[in-house]
Write a structure and sequence with these properties.
The chain is an alpha/beta fold. Helices cover about 50% and strands about 10% of the residues. The longest helix has 30 residues. Bound molecules: tryptophan.
């Protein structure tokens, strides 16, 4: 069965709060355990640069967010977890897409239009303070998704338009350069309907922009408790019944409790539980789930080099997928090596370069070897000499599986060929 590739990005600005945990992190970690899903989660740190020009905050936030996701149970062995800025193919693809994206499409982006409208309302120049980064934001996001050919993209409602734009741009590129070949899967937005939106301290949706958040790990149990104590309630006295439908405490409680506990908590409120006691019980319920994660978080954040290793390993996995696709795309738009005869006419069917092949043969001294040659027959990798065809065959199988190091002892690269080119060729076998 072919797995569904699910991909989502986390913009690395700010410090994660309880609303992020319940609304995004926890469901994403749960979804990543589904065996039919091939999950890609990444830190959208290029996107963060659009909103923030303070290097220290950029650095801090990506570390905190990486540690948060790992502490929340994301298993980097199972999912591909990486930083956007470690994948050079993403900005490269961004440019290829930029060149086929209609300016008019970008003019319609909600985030850009909102900034223009705000400027006009304040009698400013319509483009005041608007960078090209903000303007082109949806193209970078399209590249994030398309470089891995993700099928499903879990996002909030505010991002649906961006996914539609990614589809538009992908379809246009496919049409222009693919002929009958589809380079890109058209991605679909995945909107989680049942995921809870948490109320913040003032009862409105918990959000950094309302300054009403309860931190997830920052400040420890102490700050969690103090923040919960600051949730706005009404003036009903202890003993007076409180409507569980219309208060933030019950909604927050429900996000961390099972059905039975939730019913009991609501009943206690209706029966006149004091606000102070209600907050104490809420704190205990939340902390029960968060405390073990917080402990892992503190261990992780104290060892940034370990997080770096995890992210580097994730980036290597991701690049192994991105690099061959980008090669194909460069080829398709005409950014080709000058090795093959140059054609002046547009050809749509040559967009997929011919498959490389392994040729096994017997040396004159009776030993066995192989060559890996590209679609045009040029030597990429010369194999070592083996006593039996079986030994040579086993080496070929390992190389085709895509995880063997090369050149091994006795192997050598073809003239003018670099390891990257061999790696790209080998990747073709992995995909096939
Ligand atoms: N723009 C998204 C947000 O603010 C983050 C993001 C960047 C993203 N690249 C993405 C989400 C690719 C999904 C897919 O929430």
């Amino acid at each position: 069965m072919r797995k569904t590739r699910v991909l989502t990005g986390i913009t690395t600005t700010g410090t994660p709060h309880l609303g992020n945990y319940v609304g995004a992190i926890r469901p994403a970690v749960e979804a990543s355990l589904d065996a039919s899903v091939d999950a890609f989660y990444f830190l959208a740190d290029y996107h963060a640069l659009i909103k923030c020009d303070d290097p220290a905050r950029i650095e801090r936030s990506r570390l905190e967010i990486a540690a948060t996701w790992l502490a929340a149970g994301l298993n980097p062995e199972r999912v591909t977890f990486y930083r956007q800025s470690d994948i050079p193919q993403i900005p490269e693809l961004t440019w290829l897409l930029t060149c086929v994206t209609a300016k008019g499409l970008m003019n319609r982006a909600h985030a850009y239009k909102a900034s223009v409208d705000a400027n006009i309302a304040q009698d400013e120049d319509p483009d005041a303070g608007i960078t090209m980064g903000l303007y082109s934001y949806p193209i970078l996001m399209a590249a994030d998704i398309l470089i891995f050919n993700a099928h499903k993209v879990p996002v909030g409602r505010d991002q649906i338009q961006h996914i539609e734009m990614a589809r538009d741009v992908a379809a246009r590129f496919n049409h222009l350069f693919g002929g009958s070949h589809e380079f890109f899967v058209l991605p679909e937005a995945l909107i989680e309907e049942q995921v809870a939106t948490l109320p913040g301290l003032d009862g409105r949706k918990m959000s950094k922009s309302y300054d009403n958040t309860i931190p997830l790990f920052e400040g420890g149990a102490r700050l969690l408790k103090d923040s919960i104590a600051r949730i706005v309630t009404d003036s009903r006295a202890p003993g007076e019944p409180k409507d569980p439908e219309s208060n933030a405490l019950a909604t927050l409680y429900q996000a961390f409790a099972d059905a039975e506990d939730t019913v009991a908590y609501r009943a206690a409120l209706s029966a006149g539980l004091s606000w102070g006691e209600a907050k104490q019980r809420l704190f205990q319920k939340v902390d029960e789930q968060i405390a073990p994660l917080r402990e892992r978080y503190e261990t992780l954040i104290a060892r940034p080099a370990d997080i770096e290793d995890v992210l580097q390993a994730g980036a290597a996995k991701a690049r192994a997928i991105a690099a061959p696709l980008l090669e194909e795309l460069r080829e398709a738009v005409g950014l080709r090596r000058f090795r093959a005869p140059v054609t002046t006419t547009r050809s749509n069917d040559s967009s997929e370069p011919a498959m490389p092949v392994f040729k096994q043969y017997r040396e004159s001294d009776g030993r066995f070897s192989f060559k890996l040659v590209d679609g045009e027959g040029s030597l990429l990798l010369q194999g070592a000499q083996y006593p039996s065809p079986r030994d040579a065959g086993q080496r070929i199988v390992a190389l085709k599986a895509g995880d063997a190091a090369f050149p091994a002892d006795g192997e050598s690269l073809g003239d003018g060929v670099d390891a990257e080119a061999v790696s790209v060729a080998l990747q073709r076998f992995v995909e096939d």
